[in-house]
Amino acid sequence: MTNEISKSEVVMMDDAGNVKTINGLGTAEMENAVGYKEYLEAMDLEATEKEMRWLRWKIDLIILPMFLITQALQFMHKTSLNYANLFGYQKALGLKGTQFNYLSAMVYAGYFFGQYPCGWLIGRYPAQKVLATSTLLWGLTVILMTQTRTYSSALAI
């Protein structure tokens, strides 16, 4: 059981019944801590068995399939450049030497450098809107990639 005493101090009771005081975050830090205020508010919530069944149902039938489909599309996107290479992508773009390797590396660099901004956006805005927007932008980028005719244009996208 947890009770909030002040914005920066939380009292918790562990499994053995011992009461512990935890110094939390200061006011400025709490405002910037993503989800911390909601976490503290939810500590006293209790759910019925019916509500828990409904939540599991929602996760299993709605959220999980959307996650799996998005992950499958992401995997196909990562491998699509290699499949295109099998069908003459290097020749069509006139790639020489290690240019195809640099182009492949740029795909993964985009994933790497996009992780922090997406995490920040999900913390500040509703996750479903951020994910929908980023999926749309990702799809547009893949469509634009099909229209490239030179190495520099493919690298720019």
Your description of this structure?
The chain has seven helices and three strands. It has a three-stranded antiparallel beta sheet with strand order 1-2-3, with no helix packed on it. The longest helix is centred in the middle third of the chain and has 38 residues, at 49-86. It has helices spanning 27-32, 36-42, 49-86, 89-93, 99-124, 127-145, 151-156; strands at residues 2-6, 9-13, 19-23. 2% of the residues are buried. The chain is mainly alpha-helical and 157 residues long. The chain has two domains: 1-64, no CATH class; 89-157. The chain crosses the membrane at residues 59-77, 102-123, 130-148. It comes from Periconia macrospinosa. Keywords: Membrane, Transmembrane, Transmembrane helix, Transport. Its main location: membrane. This is MFS general substrate transporter.
Brief characterization of the structure:
With 157 residues, the protein is mostly helical. Helices cover 68% and strands 10% of the residues. The chain has 2 domains: 1-64, no CATH class; 89-157.
pLDDT under 50 segments (min length 5)? 1-8
* Integer tally of domains: 2
Rg computed from alpha carbons, rounded to a whole number of angstroms:
23 Å
Structural class: mainly alpha
Given the structure, what is the number of helices?
Answer: 7
What distance separates the N and C termini? 52 Å
Shape, principal axes of CA atoms: elongated
* Number of beta-strand segments: 3
- Largest sheet report: 3 strands, antiparallel
Order of strands across the widest beta sheet? Answer: 1-2-3
Strand proportion: 5-15%
User: Would you tell me the overall average pLDDT?
Assistant: 78
**H and E order:** EEEHHHHHHH
GO cellular component, one term: membrane
Subcellular location: Membrane
GO molecular function: transmembrane transporter activity
Membrane topology: Multi-pass membrane protein
